[in-house]
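Running this now, will post back.
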Amino acid sequence: MNYLKPIHSALIAIVNDEPEHFFFKGEPSYENLIWTSKTLKKPTEDEIAKKIQELEIERERTEYQRQRKPEYPSIGDQLDALFHAGVFPSEMAEQIQAVKDKYPKTP
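Update: finished.
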């Protein structure tokens, strides 16, 4: 779940996940935005609004991924099922079997 305010998420995206370029003095808002970057120009309110809209569209577009994730079996369970079904290439199956043989399951 995303606990960041939309303006904060947009700014993080604008500065490529380098939050040291800014901070807020008080509640997150453009008026409270303190821009500390010496290398990046401060985005305008319109640029931030556009980025917020882009992020919202992307979040809606990928909502199915967040809905599916908790209902899928774990990656480990999926890989184990594939191994037992015999669908791995022989080299991979041999590596996996070697590890299983080295550390057998205790009864």
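The mean pLDDT is 92. More later if anyone needs it.
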